[in-house]
Write a structure and sequence with these properties.
The complex is a heterodimer of chains A (421) and B (315). In chain A, α4 links the parallel β1 and β2. Chain A has 17 helices and 5 strands. Chain A has 421 residues and is mainly alpha-helical. Chain A is elongated. With 315 residues, chain B is α/β, with parallel strands linked by helices. Chain B has 2 domains: 167 residues, P-loop containing nucleotide triphosphate hydrolases (Rossmann fold); 58 residues. Chain B contains 10 helices and 13 strands. In chain B, strands 5-6-7-3-8-9 form a 6-stranded mixed sheet, sandwiched between helices. In chain B, α2 crosses α3, α2 packs parallel to α4 and α9 crosses α10. Classes of the chains: A mainly alpha (421), B alpha/beta (315). Chains A and B meet through α1 and α9 of A and α1 and α2 of B. Chain B: It holds the Pfam family ABC_tran. Chain B: InterPro entries: AAA+_ATPase, ABC_transporter-like_ATP-bd, P-loop_NTPase. Chain B: One of its GO terms (molecular function) is ATP hydrolysis activity. Chain B: This is ABC-2 type transport system ATP-binding protein.
Chain lengths: 421, 315
């Protein structure tokens, strides 16, 4: 027990050293600035994704007006689209009125399969637009234009004399009925939150693992690793290094998160992003846990592979396929965004390295919490196993200690003995 | 009557280690008594560093077992051990005082106490003014001193030094010898490897001579020397005569002198024969063999030549 405590304490000494050395280095400044570019790229990916993903395509308004009024609205849309273009107007989906308008509107908004950005109900005289605040703000102009044109067409039919029609024409008063986005109505926005969450998670992990590998190579080149391995088990060294970088990333997240929150409050207001299904506090907490899990899982693999490298160039060569693999994992886990209960999403949640991404996406769209508890335990077990395995690999391949793994036996490359004496 | 039991700081039996099919260490046995200064001698490639690494638990042996301060898993004893590796390792940007405290902290010494001790140790080593300066600003010898201080800052019971004299000038080598003696006087066991026989001869009570991955000799320096008979150097005015018959069979001439091992019967019968035979003794010297001679006799001339070459390459 004392041995384990000694190892843990020594691991924390390594973590502290690495953390302090990194925070006080110039590269940390670049680390803080760095995410701006990936986030920009993430925005671009999001935009591209939005184009190819019909689920997150142009806003669609479900229309529950009386049949003749609904048809007039469609005609009006066609006429306006001829002048302004198809992309300038939201899509309309006619729905037969059934029961109380507001209840039906909320049910339509909550439908994750046939997604609607907003619902237009009532009559042409007293139209009601239901939807999240942000969507109402975005759509109120287009909907007003559609309603005005529909009424004009209708009056023109009743009063062929244009002057008389103009005399009867009054501006339509559009009643807006905002819904609580937290009630699970804004699937489109949640899908966006999920995708942003995944992209942020991926880029943070990439940044950190890159820094950690450089650090490891530096220690190998200046021979500090020999001092460390003589005092601390390799598992402890790996754990200390991972904890240091995790601490570093949390520092970064605190800075970036603070800056982002300030920017949101200053420029957009707090209600611009609809909350995820589990609510913001839990989503952020889960985001932090899943970030730690994905970082530890992928970082341990990177550390194990990177520890074989002797130069930064070798690290870069080794990192490339790993980075591609990580992109693949994110793509795999993105299945969970559109179909959180589908077989692909389930597989992504089970595969340890994609599990954090898949589960973060799930947290954005599904309110149930128990799967997260299960996933966190599952990921924690894999973190421990991965660190253990990569540390063993380091001992076998770099320190040439212990029996070689099956992999090493199958693909053994003859290396010159690293130890003289 | 009470039997004296010597406690062992290190005990290793049958250590074997291979790299890529080549046996670097081939069945090494070592027993280091507590409180001793113990030297591991051998040329480069003899298996010294590999042996030390196995003893410390940095790598595991393929065969054999070892205990370090009573622990079968050497890393469990890490807080009581100090280790200076052959390839020195320090963080270049770390201040000297922090580097020493960090090395102590790895072995369980609280950082605050480590900093305090580091200040004292640096002052004693004449490096007080460098305490806050980064390692990269030090000369190689100074950096080596800092690492050595980091090795002993937590006051270990066992100090393992791999080629500690390598890269030091004569002045610093003398200081290091003093420091090793001081640590041993303080009760610590010191084990060091070296390819410079003179250091071992001056410092060690016991040595192990390693060559080709095997221990060729293990015991006291006196025992190693005792393996050789003293050498006699004899110079005579007369080049030939009946006295020649009294010379041992191994006597040979070198530089105008007769060289041979001191006979088992001692020098007196020979001296008598030389005087009786009118050899005309000009020079008669009986030389005790040095550790180098013992090394040559034990490990072979080839190993000794390699050691000498190493010494020339790495003064």
């Amino acid at each position: 027990m004392t041995g384990r405590m000694d190892s843990l304490r020594a691991a924390m000494v390594i973590a502290r050293r690495d953390y302090v050395a990194s925070v006080w280095s110039r590269t940390f400044l670049f680390f803080l600035i760095g995410p701006l570019l990936p986030l920009l790229a993430g925005g671009l990916f999001g935009a591209v994704g939005a184009n190819v993903d019909k689920e997150t395509g142009p806003p669609t308004i479900a229309v529950i007006l009386p049949a003749d009024e609904a048809n007039g609205l469609v005609r009006a849309r066609v006429l306006i689209a001829e002048r302004l273009g198809e992309g300038a107007l939201p899509q309309l989906r006619l729905v037969k009125p059934a029961g109380e308008g507001e209840v039906q509107a909320r049910a339509l908004l909550a439908d994750n399969v046939r997604r609607s950005s907003a619902v237009l109900s009532g009559t042409l005289e007293k139209p009601v637009l239901t939807g999240p605040r942000g969507v109402l703000r975005d759509l109120r102009g287009e909907v007003g234009l559609l309603l005005d044109r529909t009424r004009s067409l209708s009056l023109a039919r009743l009063f062929p004399d244009g002057d008389a029609a103009a005399a009867f024409e009054e501006p339509v008063t559009l009643t807006e009925r905002p819904v609580d986005a937290a009630a699970g109505s804004d699937a489109r926005a949640r899908s966006l939150v999920a995708r942003i969450g995944q992209v942020v998670l991926m880029f943070l992990t990439l940044l950190l693992t890159g820094m950690m590998l450089s650090n490891m190579v530096e220690e190998k080149s200046n021979k500090v690793i020999e001092v460390l391995t003589a005092a601390v088990p390799v598992d402890g060294i790996f754990f200390g290094k991972l904890v240091a970088m995790l601490g570093l990333s949390l520092t970064g997240i605190a800075v970036w998160g603070g800056a982002a929150a300030l920017a949101l409050i200053a420029f957009a207001g707090p209600a611009v992003i609809p909350p995820p299904a589990v609510g913001w506090p839990i989503y952020l907490a889960l985001g932090l846990i899943y970030f730690a899990a994905t970082y530890l899982l992928i970082g341990a693999v990177f550390l194990g592979i990177g520890a074989q490298a002797n130069s930064v160039r070798e690290v870069q060569t080794m990192s490339m396929p790993l980075t591609m693999a990580q992109l693949g994992l994110v793509a795999f886990a993105s299945a969970a965004v559109n179909d959180p209960d589908g077989p692909l999403a389930l597989a992504a949640a089970i595969l340890p390295w994609s599990s954090p991404y898949a589960m973060l996406a799930r947290a954005a769209g599904q309110p149930t919490l128990w799967p997260h508890l299960l996933a966190i335990l599952w990921q924690a077990a894999w973190v421990a196993l991965t660190i253990r395995l990569t540390a063993r690999w380091f001992r076998v391949s770099v320190l040439k200690s212990g029996p070689p793994s099956l992999f090493a036996r199958l693909f053994r490359r003859r290396r010159s003995a690293p130890i003289s004496g | 009557m009470r039997a004296e039991v010597t406690r062992l700081a290190i005990e290793a039996r049958g250590l074997v280690k291979s790299f890529g099919g080549r046996r670097a260490v081939d069945g090494i046995d070592i027993a280091v008594p507590e409180g001793a200064i113990y030297g591991v001698l051998g040329p480069n490639g003899a298996g010294k560093t590999t042996t030390l690494r196995m003893l410390l638990g940095i790598i595991d042996p393929d065969e054999g077992h070892r205990t370090l301060l009573g622990e079968a898993q050497p890393l469990r004893a890490a807080p009581r051990v100090g280790y200076l590796p052959e390839e020195r390792g320090l963080y270049p940007s770390m201040p000297c005082q922090e580097a020493i405290a960090f090395m102590g902290a790895l072995r369980g010494l609280p950082l605050k106490e480590g900093r305090r001790r580091a200040t004292t140790l640096l002052g004693e080593a004449g490096l007080g003014e460098w305490a806050g300066k980064p390692i990269r600003s030090l000369s190689k010898g100074m950096a080596q001193t800092v690492q050595l201080l980091g090795t002993i800052v937590h006051q270990p019971r066992l100090i393992v030094l791999d080629e500690p004299f390598s890269g030091l000038d004569a002045l610093n080598q003398g200081r290091l010898e003093g420091l090793i003696r001081a640590q041993a006087e303080g009760g610590a066991t010191v084990l060091f490897s070296t390819h410079v026989i003179a250091h071992a001869e001056r410092l060690c009570e016991r040595i192990a001579i390693i060559a080709g991955g095997r221990v060729r000799f293990e015991g006291s320096v006196a025992d190693a020397r005792g393996r050789l008979r003293p050498q006699v150097r004899l110079g005579t005015r007369s080049e030939d005569g009946p006295w020649r018959a009294a010379l041992p069979a191994d006597a040979h001439r070198e530089g105008g002198l007769w060289l041979f091992e001191l006979p088992e019967t001692g020098i007196e019968p020979l001296l008598h024969a030389l005087i009786e035979g009118h050899a005309g003794i000009e020079t008669l010297a009986i030389e005790r063999p040095g550790l180098h001679d013992a090394f040559v006799a034990i490990a072979g001339q080839a190993a000794a030549d390699t050691m000498r070459e190493d010494e020339e390459v790495r003064p």
